[in-house]
Amino acid sequence: MNIKDRILEIVPEAQFAEQGDLTATIPAESFHALAEKLRYDEDAQFDFLLSLTGMDWGETLGVVYHLESTKYGHSIVLKTMTANRENPELPSVTDLWKTADFNEREVFDFFGIRFVNHSDMRRLYLREDWVGYPLRKDYDDSLNPLRMTNEVTEDTTDELSLDDEGNLVNKTNVLFEDKEYVVNIGPQHPATHGVLRFRTSLEGENIKKIEPYCGYIHRGIEKMNESLTYPQTLALTDRLDYLGAHQNRHAVCMCVEKAMGVEVSERVQYIRTIMDELQRIDSHLLFYSCACMDLGALTAFFYGFRDREKILDIFEATTGGRLIQNYNTIGGVQADIAPDFVKNVKEFIVYLRPILKEYHDVFTGNVITQQRFKNVGVLTREDAISFGATGGTGRASGWACDTRKRKPYAMYGKVDFKEIVYTEGDCFARYMVRMDEILESMKIIEQLIDNIPEGDYQVKMKPIIRVPEGNYFASVEGSRGEFGVFIESHGDKFPYRMKYRSTGLPLVSVVDTITRGAKIADLISIGATLDYVVPDIDR
Amino acid sequence: MEIKKPKIKSMQYEDFQDNEYLEKMVAELNAEGTNVLLGKLDDLINWGRSNSLWPLTFATSCCGIEFMALGAARYDMARFGFEVARASPRQADMIMVCGTITDRMAPVLKRLYDQMPEPKYVVAVGGCAVSGGPFKKSYHVVNGVDQIMPVDVYIPGCPPRPESFYYGMMQLQRKVKLEKFFGGVNRKEKEEK
Amino acid sequence: MFDFSIVSSWIHGLLTGFMPEGLAIFLECVVIGVCIMLMYAVLAIILIYMERKVCAFFQCRLGPNRVGKYGLMQVFADVFKMLIKEIITLKNSDRLLYNLAPYMVILASILSFACLPINKGMEIINFNIGVFFLMAASSIGVVGILLAGWSSNNKFTLIGAMRSGAQIISYELSVGLSILTMVVLTGTMSFSEIVEKQADGWNIFKGHIPALIAFIIYLIAGNAETNRGPFDLPEAESELTAGYHTEYSGMHFGFFYLAEYLNLFIVSGVAATVFLGGWMPFHVSGLDGFNAIMDFIPGFVWFFAKAFFVVFLLMWIKWTFPRLRIDQILRLEWKFLVPISMFNLLLMVLIVVFGLHF
User: Fold this and answer.
1) I need a surface site. Which of A88, A347, B116, C272 has the fewest CB within 10 A?
2) In a mutagenesis test of the C interface, which of B52, B84, B86, B120 is the best target, namely the one with the most C β-carbons within 10 Å?
3) Is the ipTM of this complex over 0.85?
């Protein structure tokens, strides 16, 4: 099916971009009808909304949608806009893709665009009394000094809808009734997952409803990127999902290299792949440690960290950093690998295999663990796709979403590894997916480690990097899901807009759906196995 | 009054960097003179307090992972007695602010600090807590934790290595050892009404 | 066998020599009270140190080792610090109950502690229904916990206290039934007599199968009673900050902290007394020479060795298993442990009636 032709059939006024990824600009009035057709038509079936990005184009405000089909694999980028900067409104797509719920709130928070028929039009990241919309180009920061007063949390929210005459009408929806027993969990959690706040309505020990409040670690990275050059933006990407530091930088470098048409040497591809996989093992070991700690088996936490330290030693010898590595650059890597890198990695793999069996002995086979994990927090496959919950969570629900298999990059197309998919979708499946992925990562490394070709570790780049005009998108399989980078460039040395498709935001939006009726202790199991990192959610 | 040199096990006094700050503090404390008996009692209590500083589990971002690595088996902060990290602010002695503090988190952090019982200490860990770090220009980041609460020790780094953590903790221990406990704890902040 | 009544009767004789009997007894009571408090504090310090070192041993790391040689002074530093911390008064708490709660917990703990026989002749509270009194006294602790959770004016502490209350009250049944099994075997409820009767072999060997089952059930239920190990959901850190004692600071929190470790010791001490023979050395009937050698080691060494062994077992369990959810805890008790204990009791009765024990 030719997507371009199909779109022109439905919306004849659509315009297509000349440079960059194939992007269709759709006028706002016909957008929802087109989206619905693309979602449900037999030969289109665009059921995965990869990324929803708000944009400020000077005179117009708009949104860019990246859609993909899990059945056919084709993808398309849609754009829509409104010229009304005082009260911008666009149609909401929350009825088609559930991931739009949080993403549209984010766009409202940063740009002020209100979405019609969105049932919960509140700010997501910033305080409820914040003045203005930060990511607009004409934002004035002096309106928002540091407020030390306690935030007042509202129990009601607004919904914008069209009544019969086509006028916009404001409706109030209630989040929590007065007589509900509402408990605050967070933002100060014991130091595992970061600062996330859940307002939970309880009935005895059972959870009736959860409202997540994000933004306690929102550092405004996307706004900062608009005044940094491309190599400077790399410095901040390590600090997003710090357990996927190599993978984040890989995504950004890939996106810029794709946009500029730069080819990196094979040596660099090998090194990037091996580092990505080592980072993935590191992240999964930390996942194991923290899951055990949350469940109360503290000894396993220490075992996991002990083994993680060995990977950190390997990283430190090459990149100089334990957690923040600063390794990938545009066109290559920062420095060549250390002389005994190959030897250390091979020793480490030989060391880790029996240790994994020990982990399973200590924790997985335990009857208490099985009772706390099995049949808890079941996420169905349709929900996983609709929420966009990629990574281990999606694969545990039966959705084969591994970016390394769907859109192979670096050396992933040439190595042989299995994609681990479980179908139960409960906490135990999510846990087992990650434990099995450690074995697969070791397999990938073993295939690559002995054959690293000679070559340059950095392509010669101009001192000032300018990306040609257009929209570009690239994604990698991060430790927790599909991490994507969307760059809109106007030919400058600064990006006009640089957005990160977060791996954690869909995972947090799933929490309310899968904890209905569960107990508080189950919320802990679910949070531990969903494995989100909060700075990645908040950016 | 001779200068009291706080002793830290297995490290020399001269190996520490910031000795002038402590000597100035001692000079201020001793300006009114001190009773010999109370001085000895002070030493005993301060020995107890410096060896049993319980941190509050508080970590917002990347530095929190290094804090966890500090408690893990290789670096093992239990040797110092710090491993009892309490989750409730009412039972903690110090708060190690690990990670960036944003505008939304600032009032929450202040409330946590207020809930802690005296004597309490604040350690700003990592570039973000010291001065805003790599995110200094952001619209939503507080440029350093000392804008909202008094800080005792700054540990720079992004993230600081566990050895840097230990150096900062030992500096805090030295500071605690020199405080005069009886007759009012010498703290720089004014009483808040 | 070293008999402590030699010492106590000598002291009594000395005192009644120069003062009336009533005053002598009063003075003795005061001295004994002070001794209990001292022993309580010293044991708590030893247990806290032991926990930190044992836990470090399981986790492949060193424990405290900087404060004094081998870290022996670490707990003293903790105690000094705790003594001088500010005690925060909450704004809207129930003032009387909030201040009363830690003392109730300590009271229950000390009362139970005083029942344990440490050596021959060295029992403090000893009368013919000792076992019954111990179980009743240890139940007072629940009231302290519920008061703490309720009066703190905090939703989390309330949830934690409710969970804890439900758990402790349920598991008292299993504790009671397993001790009752041994009472059936020995035929008496007085602690000193239970220990005397184990002179020809410990109860766990005499009672074979039902005694072993009762021992295992007692360990599980006793663990749950003290809110430790796989049953520590009421104070689960990653869920409810610190459970029912979240709002306590300074010495009040110190009391809760101490009481937790002492309850652990009391549970182990009762297990050592009722199942493993208390201060009675390891005798094998028939080997008189061996028994004489065993008798040289004084009773309190035996008692503490056994109690600390059981403490080590309980710590091992705590640092290995993950936590159970509250409904799983209650299901374990009501659907599994209580029926098994009742059946076990019946089995023991049959064995005693038909004389099938050793």
Assistant:
1) A347
2) B52
3) yes
